[in-house]
Amino acid sequence: MDANDEEADVRLQRIADDLLGDFDSSLESFLRKSAATTSSSSTQVKAKASPRVRARVRAREAARMAALLDPFQEFPQLLDVYLARWLPMLADAFLESVERSSRHSTKANATAAAVAAAEAATAAAASTTTATAVSSLVVPLQAAVARLLYTICKVRGEKVVVGFLPVETRHLEPLLGALEAQAVASPSTSSSSTDALSLTDESDQHGSWTWQERYIVLLWLSQLLLAPFDLATISTGRRGRVDDVDEDVEAEGGAAKRSLLPEIDGFDWPDVEPTAIPSITLRILPLAVRYLAVPGKERDAARVLLVRIAMRRDMQELGIRQALVHWALASLDGQGTVVRQPYYYIGTLSFLAGILSAAAGASDMDDALAAIFAAVHAVADEDGEAGPNSVFAAIRSSALARKMMIKATRAVTVRYIQLLDQPPQDESASADFSEAADTAIETTIGYLLGRLADNDTPVRFAASKALSIITLRLPPDMAAQVSDAVLEALERNVLHDAATGHVDLTAIDPLEWHGLMLTLAHLLYRRSPPLEALPAIVRALQRGLAFERRSVSGSATGTNVRDAACFGIWALARRYTTAELQPLQVLQMLATDLVVAGCLDPAGNIRRGSSAALQELIGRHPDTICEGIPVVQAVDYHAVALRSRAVTDVAQRATALSPPIYGVALREALVSWRGFADAGDAGARRVAAASFGQVTYLMATSGEDTTAPLDYFFKTIGTLVSKIKTLQARQVEERHGFLLALAAVLDIFPSLAGGSGVTTELCLSVLEQLHGVIEKCKALSAARRPDLLAEAACRLIVSSFPIIQAAIYLGAGTKVEQLSTTLLSGPTLLAESNQMPATLFQKTVLALDFAFLSCTHEDTTAAVQAYNTLVAASVSGPNAWLGRQEADVISAASDASLVLLVTLGPQEQLSAPSTAPSAPAAPASPASSTAPLSRHSLISFWSGVVCRPRAAAAVSFKARASGSGTTGTGYVFAMTKVFPLYECAMARTGENAGEDKSKSSSDDGDTISRALLGRWAADRSIDTRMALLQALAQSPAVLMQRAITTSSSAAAPGSRFRSILAAGLDDYTTDARGDVGSHVRMYALRATQVLWAQEAAAADRESSTYSTKPTGASILFFRVLRLAAEKLDRVRVAAQATLAQAVGGQEGAHLQSLPFSSQAYFRCLLGLWEMVSIENDDDAGYSSIAAAAARSGDNTKNSSATKWMAALMRGYVTSADTGNEELVVASRAAMVDYVLANGGGDNDNDTLRQSRQQCLWQALLRNLPGSPAAAITAAGKVVTPPDRIVVPTLEIVAFLFNAGVFSSSTLDRTTTTTTPNRDDLLELCRQVNEAMDKAGSVRKVEACIKVYGVVALASKGTNGGGDVAREKLASLLHHEWPRARNAVVDELWGLGLGMELSAPGPDFQSDAGTAAGATIAPSGPGPAISTPSFDILKGVDWIAADSASLGKLASQLGLVR
C-alpha cells in the first residue's frame, strides 16, 4: 500500500546537505589535476602553476557525481546556492577540453589510425577484450562534464543553466568548430539515444560525441547568439565563407557564388549576395537543421538555436527567417511520396511553434500567419478535402507532433485575436481579414475541444492550456460560450437515477473528463468563467474530485481526473474573492471534500494536492471554514504522504475536530471505493477498516448526536451486516473489506460497554448475525479469492470475543457496570497472550471459565456452543482455513484458533470425556465427529495434523504443489499460539483442580512440544522449517516454557527448543533456486533474538545477571557469530542485530551502528573476543550472553579464544573469498589490520601481534580436515568441515601468507612460540594433503596448490614444511585435470619470482646447456640453498607435456630430492 515507510522528500531534505556537500567537495578534484603534478621542477613555477583539466576521468566517478544530483528533481531550488560556483567551473573545464581536443586533433587522428592498424594486425582475441575492458573504465572529461551539465539542466531547467554559462563571443568559434568536427567524424546522428551516458562509448574512439555533448553545445550556441551586434562583425570567415573565391568563379557571377553555399535539403537560401551572409550563419544553419530531426534531446536545443538565429534582426533583414519558414511549410505540404521519420516532422513543427512564440505580441510573423495556420490545419484535419494523406497520417500518429500543432495553432489564434482588437487601417482588407481570423479562431477552438479527449496526456495538457489562453483573450460573451461548451461536455453520458438521486458515471470517457476538468482548472486560474457559471463549475469539480473508474485489467483510471479537480479547486480559491464565493455557499462543501480526499484518496499526489488546495482555500477565505486552521494543521501536506498514516491518524484527527461535518463525510467515504471497498488493494482495505472502527468510536462518543453510544454501535453493526448480505458472490474484495470493518467496529465494544444499554438479548442478536455472516463465508470457500474471505472471517471471529464474553458474563449474573473493566477486545487478548508473564490473559481465561460454569442462561449457552461449533468447523474442519498456505490467512486463522479455545470454556462444561483421546492414526476433525468439542480434543487433533503432514492433506485444501511436507503450517502456528492456555491450566491446577485435570493439562503442554519437535525431525522441507521457526519467534511462551521447566541439571536451559534453533542456524540447504537455507537461518536468527530478549527480561525481573551456563550460551552464540560474518548480506544484517543483542552494552550498540559491509565492522568482529573476555572474571554470573559463551572452552583462555575465533572464521572466510568485490576487500583488509596494525613499537604490541597471529592460525587450521580439535558425533565419527568452509579457508591461508600476516620473516625466529613455526607448517601440509585426498572440485585443488606454493616460498627450503610442499607440487604436475596442472605451473612461476633470483649459477644446467641455478646464503642458520632458475617454465605448454618431461621439470626445479 505504501511504497516506502518514509516519505522520499523528507528523507531527501534530511540528506540534501550531505549530497550537495559531497558533490561540491569532489567537483574540483574531479575536473582538474593538482597543481603539484602538472608543474615543472622549479619551485617558483610550482607555486604559480594552476591545476590542469584532466583528459579522462573514471566512469564510475562520473556516474556517482551525476547520481548525487538526480534525487533533486522534486526540489530543484536546493541547488540554487551552488549553481553560481558549479556551472562556471564545469563550463571552463568543458571549454578547455574542447580547445585541447582542437589543438591535438591531428595527433589524435594519427594515434587512432596507428591503434586501429595494430588491432587489425594482432590475432589475439584476449588482447582486444582486455583493451575494451580498460577503455570502459574511463571516459573523456568533456563527455563527463556534458553529462553533469545535462543532469543540472534536467533538475533545474535549461533556462536557468544557460544563464550561468560564459557568453563571451570568443567562445563561439571554438564551440562551433568542435561541433562541426564531430559532425564530420560522425555523419549519422539520427540514431541519437536519450539514454544515460554510455560508459563504454566506442564512438569516442573516432572523435564523435555523446548526445549530452551535442545538446550542451547547441544550447550554449543559442545563448551566444544573443550577442547585441551583427553576426558579420564576429564571423572569422572559416568554413562556409564565400568571400575568397578565385577569379574564375568571380567571373561567372552570383550563380557560381551561390553554388558554394551549403546545401540543405528543401531549403532555399535568400536571394541576396552570398557574401553578405555571415559565415557563422552558413555554418550554424546546416547543423541546426540536421539536429532538428534527431530523436534525442538535441532536437530541443537545435530548435532553440534555429529560432534564435531566425529572429535576429540582422538575419531577418537578410531573409533568413522567411527562408526558414518557407522551408518548414514545404516540409509539411504533404506532396511528397516519401514519408520521413516522425522526428523530422516533430522538429519542423516545434520550430514553427517556437518561432511563433518568440514573435508573440510583435508583428514579425504576421505575414506568415495564414500560411502556417493553413499548413498546420491541413495536417491536423483527418477529414481534409484532399483525402487521406500518408504524410499527414504519419505526423498525426505522433503525440509530440500533435502537441506541437496545438502550440502553433494557439500562437496563431492568439495573434489573430490581438490583431482584431487593433483599429483597422484598410476597411476593405479588414473585412476579409476579420472573416479569415474568425474562421481560424472557431476552427482552433473546435479542434482543441476535440483534442481534450486525446489518448496521450501531454496532448490533453497542451489542448487545455491552449484553450484557456485563447478564452482569456476572447470577449466575455464568447468566453462564456467556451465555458458552457466545457460544462456541457461534462454532462454527456452522465446518467441520473431519479429514484435515488445517484449519478452513474460508468458510460463516460475518463480521458475526456481529464481534459475537460483540466480545462476548467485553467479557465478558473485565468478567471475566465463568469460568476453565473461558478455553481455548475463547482458541482463539476466536486464530481471530478470523487471520480474513479476501473479498467478491464483492474487498474485505476480516474487519478488524472481527480488531480485536475484539485488544481481547479485550488485555482477557484486563489482567483475568486470571499465576497464572490460566500453567497454560493460552496466553501464548506469544498473544504469537506478536500479533507476526505486528503485523508482517503488512494493516490499520494491527490492526497497532497488536496492538502495544498485545502490550505489555499482556508488561507484565502479565512473564518469561513469550520475549524479552519486546526483542519489545515491536521491534514498537513507531509502528514498525508503515507496512505496508512493519512487513513488512520489524519482521518481520526479530522473527525475529532468536527464529527458532524468531517466525521460524517469521512465515515461515508470509508464505506466507498476510497475506503474498505477498494477493490484493488487488500492492504488498503485492512487499514481503512481499522480506521472505520476508530472513526465510529469517535462519532459514538462525540456527544454531538442524540443517539446513545451503544445504540450507535449496534446500529452500525446492523448496517454493515445488511450491506454484507446484499453483496454478490463475485464481490469478494468488497466482502473482504466489509468483514474487516465489522471486525474493527466490534473491537470498540469494550470501550462502550460501561453504560446501561448492554443486554443479553442484544449480545445474542449480534452473535446470531455474526453466525450468519461466518456461515456465508464458509459456504463461499470455493469462490474467487477464498483466501481473502478466510482471512476476514477469522479476523471477525477474533473480534467477536468481547460479544461472547459479555453474553457469558451477563448469563452468569455479572452486573452491567462491571463489564467495562472485565471485557477485552480480541486483538488485546492476543497481545496479552504473548506477554511474559501473561497475567491479564490468565485472569481473563480463568474468569471466563468460571463464568461458563456459573452461566444459568440456556439460550446463551446454546448460542455460544452453536457459534463455536461453526467456528471449529470453519477453522479446523473439512476445507479448514488452518490448512491454507497464505501468510495472512495463517496468521488470522491461528489467532482465531486461540479465541476459539478460550471461548470453548472448561472441559466439563461441554461434557468432555473423562479420558483424553489419543492421537488418531489419521486425524479426524472434531467438528465432524459426534464427540463434543473441548480444548484437549482440538489440541490433540491439531497435534495429529502437525505430526502427520501427509494425513493433513485430507483436511487442508490448496496445499502447495511443492510436496505434502508443506501442509499443516497453519496448525503449527495455532499450536504455538494456544500454548498460553497450558499455563492457564497449570495456574488453575495450582489453585483448585483435580488430578485428572492436571494430567490433561500437562498432556496438552507436552503434546504441543512433542508435535513441534517431531515435525522438525520428520520434515526437512524449507517451507516447513521456516514456518516452525516463525511460529516459535511469534510465541515466546513456547521458547521460555522449555527453558523454565527443564528438569535436567546437566542439560542447558531450554535445550529442547535450542536444538531446533541451532539446526536452523546451521541450515545451508541449496537447490535449483540457490541457497534456500538462508531463509531458514534468518528465521532462526529472529527466534534466537526473541529467546535471548525473554531471557534477559526474566533476568531483569529477578534482578540478577545472566545465569546461563557457558555450554548453554555457546550452543547458539557461536552460530550467530559465524553468521554475523558470512557473505550473504541479508543474513549478515540479521545476525549483526542478534550478535549486538548478545554482546549488549556500549559494545553491542557500537557493533550495531557499523555498516554491515564495512572494514570497521569486520575489524570489530575480529576484536570482539578481546573486548568480551575482560568481563569473565566472575564465574557466578555473566553480564551478557557473549560473556557466558566466552568461557565455553576447555577452561583455558587460549582454548576459549581459539574456539571463538574458529567459529568466527567459519563465516568470515566466505565473505573474504566468495563475497562481492567490496565485501572481499573490506574483510581482507580488516584481517590484515587486525594482526599487523599493532605489530611494531614495543614489546607489548609485539606480544599482542604474536598472540593474534597464533589464535588466527589455530582457528584456520581448526576449520580444515584432519584437525585434532575436530568435533566428534555421538556415533564416534569425526565431523569433516564442508567444502563451503574448507575451500575459502585454504584461499584465505594463502592470502595471509602473501599479505605478510604469516610472513617469511617470522620463520627466521628461533623461539618455539613463533607462528607459524616448523611444526605448524608440517601440520598445515598434512591437513591440506587430507583435503586433497577428498577433493571433488577443481577449485578445491587449486586452493590446495596455492597453499603449497606459499608454504614452499615461506620456508625457503630450510625445514620439512617446504620440502613437503615442493614434493606435493611436483606430484600435482601429473594431476589428471589440466586446470590443476596449469595452476601448479602458475604457482611455480610465482615461487620463482618470490625467490628473487638474479642470475643462474653453475650448479644447474637447462636443456640448452646454460646455467640455470644459483647458490644463495640463507637468512638463518643452515647450509647454502641452491635455487634453480624458473625461466625454463617459459615457452612450453606444460599442460600438454608428457609425464617424462614433467618429471624432468620437477627435478630441474629442485622440487624432488
Automatic annotation (TrEMBL):
Residues 911-931 are annotated as: Disordered. Residues 1119-1338 form the Tubulin-folding cofactor D C-terminal domain. Residues 424-629 form the Tubulin-folding cofactor D ARM repeats domain. It comes from the Eukaryota. Transmembrane segments: none annotated. The keyword Chaperone applies. Keywords: Chaperone. It holds the Pfam family ARM_TBCD_2nd. The keyword Glycoprotein does not apply. This is Tubulin-specific chaperone. It comes from Sporothrix bragantina.
